[in-house]
Amino acid sequence: MHPSRHRLILLAATTAATVVAGTLGTVVASAAAVGCRVDYQITNQWQGGFGANVTVTNLGDPVSGWAVTWSYPAGQQVTQAWNATVTQSGAQVTARNVDHNAAIATNGSTSFGFNGSWTGSNPVPGSFALNGTTCTGAPPTGEPTTPPPTTPPPTTPPPTTPPPAAGVVQMENLDRGLISVRSGGGNLVSWRLLGTETSGVAFNLYRGSTRVNASPITGATNYLDSGAAAGSTYTVRAVVGGAEQAASAPALQFGAGYLDVPLQVPAGGSTPSGESYTYSASDASVGDLNGDGSYEIVLKWEPSNAKDNSQSGYTGNVYVDAYTLTGTRLWRIDLGRNIRAGAHYTQFQVYDYDGDGRAEVAMKTADGTRSGTGQLIGSSSADYRNSSGYVLSGPEYLTMFHGQTGAIASTVNYDPPRGTVSSWGDSYGNRVDRFLAGTAYLDGQRPSLIMARGYYTRAVIAAWDFRNGTLTKRWTFDSNSSGNGAAAGQGNHQLSVADVDADGRQEIVYGAATIDDNGRLLHSTGNGHGDALHVGDLDPGRAGLEVFKVDEDGSKPSSYFADARTGQVLWSTPASGDNGRGVSADIWAGSPGAESWSSAVAGLANTRGQNVGRKPSSANFLAWWDGDPVRELLDGTRIDKYGTGGETRLLDGSGVASNNGTKATPALSGDILGDWREEVIWRTTDSRALRIYSTPTPTSTRIYTLMHDPQYRVAIAWQNTAYNQPPHPRFFIGNGMGTPPTPDIHLR
Fold first, then answer.
1. Neighbours of 643 (CB within 10 A)
2. Is pLDDT above 60 for 4?
3. For the residues of 353-392, what is the DSSP string, one character each?
4. d(CA 665, CA 657)
5. Phi and psi (nearest 5°) for 710?
6. Confidence class of residue 114 from pLDDT cuts 50, 70 and 90?
7. How far apart (Å, rounded) are the C-alpha atoms in residues 166 and 163?
8. In Å, what is the CA distance from 15 to each residue of 78, 124, 126?
9. Distance CA 408, CA 401 (A)
10. If you placed Cys at 17, which of 124, 184, 350, 687 could pair as Cys (CB 3.0 to 4.6 Å)?
11. Buried b (16+ CB within 10 A) or exposed e, 589-626
12. Cα 649–650–654 angle (5° rounding)?
C-alpha cells in the first residue's frame, strides 16, 4: 500500500476540515496570511492515534530560533515528537526548534513530526503561527512577493512498475547441497528440495553405487542410513515421472557433526598511536559466486581494536575474503585506512543483483580500498583519520565487486553522503556513521541494493540497481524531506525486508517506520529506536505479516506486536527503559503461532500478548534444528530446546567462539546446506577455520529450501548488518503449520 492512497494533506486553514473516525481522505484547505506557510500532513492514522508531519516555510526575515503554535479543537494530544520539542497545555500546542534546525532562512523550510491521539474525530487545526506571526502563505506587507523555492526531493523519481507476474522473482539456481552428518551409528543424509519442485518430485539416495531406499523418497528430503560407515560417499538423484535424473555432486562430509572451512588469518599490525592489533573472523554471508550452484562464503575480518561509533581510537583495516566450502580463498578485499572497523561501519551484501547466475558483493569503500585483484580506489596516500581515529572527511564510495574475482564492477559516490556531521545528532562522529544495508525485490522481480545512514535522528535510505555492469540509483528516502518526518528517529540497529502489503514487492522495515517499495513512507508507529525486530507470519491466525519490536525510549512501550501492513499496534508491554533484546518465533507447541519475549519483560507472550509461561533463558538467535517445525534457541555457541520447566541442550559447539561481544551471535545461521533446517557457522577460537554445524536429527517435514523464499533469502543477505538478527520466511513454520505457499520464482 502506498501512503498516497491514505495520506491526509492539509494546509494551515481557517476552513474547518475533519477526519471522521474510520475514514481517511485527501483534504486541501488554504487561506490568506502573513510571513509564513505551514503544510500539515497526516502521514498515517489508526483508531485512536495518528502520525503527522509539519513543514514550516519562512517567508519573512531569517530566524535563528522558532516556535510554531496551533490549537487542537477536539482534544487531540501530542504523544511523541521528533526534530522539535513539543509541549501542550490544554488545546494549545507549541513546537520549538532543536539545535540542528534552529535557523530558517528567508524562503527556507524546516520539518518536524509527531504522533498523537484522538477520539471521535481529528479536526484540522484552523491556523498556525510562527514566532507569533499567523501563517497565511504570503510574505510580509511591503516586501516583494517571491514564491518559495522549488526544491526537488533528494531522490530519483520512483519507477512505475506494474505488479509482477507469477514466476518472475529471480532466485539462485542451486544444486542439491547434499551433506552427510554422522548420527549415532549411522549417517543422516539430507539435501535441498528446490522451490520449483513443490510437487511431482521424488528421490533415490545412493551410497556409492548402492541405492539405499527401497522405493523413491516422497517425503522429507533426508534419510538416516543406520549402520553405515563413517565417511561413506553419497549421491542423490531426483525421480520425475518415474525416471531418474542425473546424480548430484557427492555429499559433503560432517564426520564429527561439523565441516571446517580453513581460513587465512590476516597479519596484525599497529596503529599510528602504537597500539598493536590482531584479527578474528567475524560476520559472514553466502552466495553462489561462480555460478556452479553451490554456495561460497564471504567473510569479514575485524581487528581486535574495532570500535563502537561512540568510542574514539584508531582501528586496523577491515578485510573481506571469499572462500569455497573446501577452504580455497578466492580473493581478499582491503578496505583501507579510511574505513573504520566496527559493527556499525561495514555492512556488506552478497547477492546476484544482475541475474547472470553469479553473486556480487557490495560495500562502502573509500580512498585506499583495494579490490580482490589489487585495483585501487582513489588515492593510496590519502589519510582522513582525525586524532580521535574517526573518519569525518574525504570522499565516500559505494562499490559493487564481482563475486568470482573480487574485481571492481562499479563504483559510485556513496548516497547518503555525510554532509554536515552535526546534522545527524552529534558533532564527534557517532551518529553520522551508523550504516545499515540490505537487499530487496523492490520491483517484485529483480533484487536491489539498499544502503542507509542514520536512525537516531535523520534517516536516509538509498536504493540501487546493478544492471549491465553499472550501479544506478532507484530512489532515495530522506526523513528530512517533506512528508517523511515520521521516520526520523525510528530506525533500529538493523533492518528487515518483507512484502508487508502483499503487492508482490518488498518494503524496508526500518525499525518503527516502514518504507514502501517506491521509496515513500508507508507508515510509522512512532515508538522510536530499538535494538531488535522480527518480521514474519508470526500469527498465522490473522491475515498478513506481523512485526515484533523492542524499544529503547523509556516513555514508549518496551515491546509491541504490530500489523506489518498498517503499523497498527495489536498489543504492547508497559514502558520500562532500554529493552535491549527481543525475539518472536514459535518455540513452544503449547501455544498457537509465535511466542514473543524480551529482556525487560517477564514471561512468554502469545500472539495476543498474554503471558503463557516461563521466559526462555536466552533472547538472541533462533534455529530450526530438531525434527519438528517448532524453532529452537540459538545463543552464544549452543542450541537449546525450550520447555516449560527449562531448556534441553541440543548442541554445544566445540572449540568455537561467537561474534560481536555480548551480542554473542554466530558468523552466520541459515538454511545453507541440506534440507530446510538451518546450519550454524561459528569461527574456531583461533579463527583458523569456520566451523559449520548441521543437525544430526531426522525430520518427517518436507519443505523446499528456505533460500528459495524471497523474504528468507534477503534476510540471509542482511543478517550481518549491525546488530545481527535471525531470518524469518514469509510463511509460518511451526506447530500446526499448513502447506507452505509455492514460491513464484525462476532460477538463474
1. 14
2. no
3. SSSSSS-EEEEEE-TT-B-TT-PBPS-SS---B-TTS-B-
4. 9
5. -55, -40
6. confident
7. 9
8. 22, 9, 7
9. 5
10. 124
11. eebbbbbbbbbbbeebbbbeeeeebbbbebbbbbbbbb
12. 95
Which run of H or of E encompasses 448?
A: strand 448-453
Q: What is the pLDDT of residue 71?
A: 94
pLDDT score, position 51: 73
Element (H, E) at 713: helix 710-718
φ, ψ of residue 223 in degrees (nearest 5): -150, 125
Of 276, 285, 279, 277, the C-alpha closest to 265 is 279
- List the grid coordinates of 78: 501530542
**Is residue 6 over pLDDT 90?**
no
C-alpha grid cell for residue 493? 540497529
Report which of residues 148 and 190 the model is more confident about: 190
- Coil, helix or strand at residue 654: coil
pLDDT digits (tens, 9 = 90+) for 415-458: 999 999 999 999 999 999 999 999 999 999 999 999 999 999 99
CA distance 281 to 278: 11
Return the amino acid letter for 583: V
Is beta strand 169-171 parallel, antiparallel or unpaired with respect to 745-747?
parallel
- Give Cβ neighbours of residue 144 (< 8 Å, ≥ 6 apart): none
Question: How many Å is the maximal CA-CA distance in the chain?
Answer: 97
Q: 281: closest CA among 679, 657, 678?
A: 657
Taking CA atoms, 334 is separated from 265, 305, 314, 376, 397, in Å, by 13, 16, 16, 10, 14
Taking the C-alpha atoms of residue 437 and residue 324, their distance in angstroms, rounded to an integer, is: 24
